[in-house]
Amino acid sequence: MRRLIVSELISLDGIVEAPGGDETAHPHGGWTTPFRVPGAAAYKLREALEAESLLLGRITYEGFSVAWPQQEGEFAVKMNTMPKHVVTSTLHELGWNASVIAGNVPSAVETLRAGEGGPILVYGSATLVRTLLSHGLIDELRLMVFPVMIGGGLSMFPRDHQKLEFELTEFERYSNGVVRQVYRPTS
User: Could you tell me the residue range of the domain that residue 46 belongs to?
Assistant: First the structure.
């Protein structure tokens, strides 16, 4: 069984929207930019290199598929060459080494996880992550919590009053105040 890993850049107020600055719709787009440090970048590179494929929501896919092909370096090579699975009901033909997941998303993700291969990594994709959390499909939750509140935007957390319990398995504080936390479900 393949592991499904969700990795998010998240603000203190639980927002995962517009961390990188390429997003123009959020008034505080790029809120992670002042907090970049080499240790965190090295971790994100290792994380990507260990993954075999990406699972993305449509909006994240659309942003990444425009941004990443323009980038250079080891991280960009990995992002551009690894297979992608995109959850969408509106896109039918995808580029950037991607295939469509449509219909019953939890069932399709269960099938993907049951296949052979290495870890499946989810970046961004707040709506998709809410679905994955609600259906108990996440094997590991990696959060890089940034010491900033941005007052609103997309959250990855379900609002269905379902109790989900996790165990903290890793913790690291970077010199810029960013905290990396890794959680695994306890049930």
Answer: 4-185
Residue 53 and residue 32: Cα distance in Å, rounded? 24
Quote the tokens at residue 164: 């989900």
Specify the CATH number for the domain of residue 113: 3.40.430.10
Structure tokens at 157: 């957390």
**pLDDT, tens digit (0-9, with 9 covering 90-100), for 110-144:** 999 999 999 999 999 999 999 999 999 999 999 99
> With helix as H, strand as E and coil as C, how does 147-180 read?
CCCCCCCCECCCCCCCCCCEEEEEEEECCCCCEE
Cα(55)–Cα(15) distance, integer angstroms: 20
Q: Which residues pair with 181 in a beta bridge?
A: 143, 171
Model confidence pLDDT, tens digit, residues 62-92: 999 999 999 999 999 999 999 999 999 998 8
Nearest to 139 by CA among 162, 112, 158, 104: 112
pTM (2 d.p.): 0.94
- CA distance linking residue 131 with residue 121, whole number of Å: 15
DSSP output for 36-105: --HHHHHHHHHHHHH-SEEEEEHHHHHHHHHHGGG--SHHHHHHHHS-EEEE-SS--S--TTEEEE-S-H
Give the chain's length. 187
